Amino acid sequence: MNYLGLDLAGVSTRPTGVCTINQKLRVTCSVVHSDAEILSIVRRSGTKVVAIDAPLALPLGRHCLGEHCRGRSHFRACDLVLRKMGIRFFPITLGPMRALTSRGMQLLKQIRRLHVQVIETYPGAAQDLLGIPRKQYGLGALQESLKKMGCSGDILTRSLTGDELDAINCALVAKQFGEGRYLAIGDPSEIMMILPRIYKAATKP
C-alpha cells in the first residue's frame, strides 16, 4: 500500500511538493505544477489516501471567499483547536490563503472522482507535535529529522526542497490515517484536520 502527500501551492505557477510513501517509509518525491500533473501522480501511485496541506473546506456559515462574505467567520473549528494548542497557522481568508483554499477545494473534488480518500493536514502542526523543526528553521535540519524517523529513498540520495519535505510529512500523516493511528481535530460538519497521534510513555507510579 502506498500513501501520498501533497504540499499544495496556491497557484500552478508555483511548485507543489509531492511524496509517495510505502509501508517501509521509502519515499519518492518530486515537484510539479499543474492539477493535471498532480492527478496523474495520484493515478499512478495506486494510493487510496491523499493528505493535502491546504484548507479543503470553509468555516460553517461561510459560502465563499468573496468580499460579500466579509462579516462571516475567518476560522474553522480545526483552526480554533490549533490556536488552543499554541500552533501557528494562517487563516484561510488571509491574502494568498484564499487562492490556496480555492485550489484545494477544487482538487479535493477531482481526486475524489478517482475513488481516492482525501484528508486535510498541516505539516507545520505535524512537525510541532513530532518535535521536529519546521522548514523555516532549516531544510537540512528537517531532512535529518525525517531520516531519523526512518524515512528512506529519495531523502537519502539528494537534498530535498522545502515543498518536498513538507510533502513527506503529509504522506506520513496519510499513512497513519490509513492505519487508523491519527488525531482528528475540528467539526465534521466543516472538515476534520488529520494530524499525527503522539503516544506518551506510561509513567511508573
Describe this structure in a few short sentences.
The chain is of the alpha/beta class. Helices cover 36% and strands 20% of the residues.
Describe the overall structure:
This protein has 205 residues and is α/β, with parallel strands linked by helices. It has one domain: Ribonuclease H-like superfamily/Ribonuclease H (Nucleotidyltransferase, domain 5), CATH 3.30.420.10. 36% of the residues lie in helices and 20% in strands. The strands form 2 sheets. It has a 6-stranded mixed beta sheet with strand order 5-4-1-2-3-6. A two-stranded antiparallel sheet has the order 7-8. Helix 4 crosses helix 7 (162-178). The longest helix is centred in the last third of the chain and has 17 residues, at 162-178. It is globular.
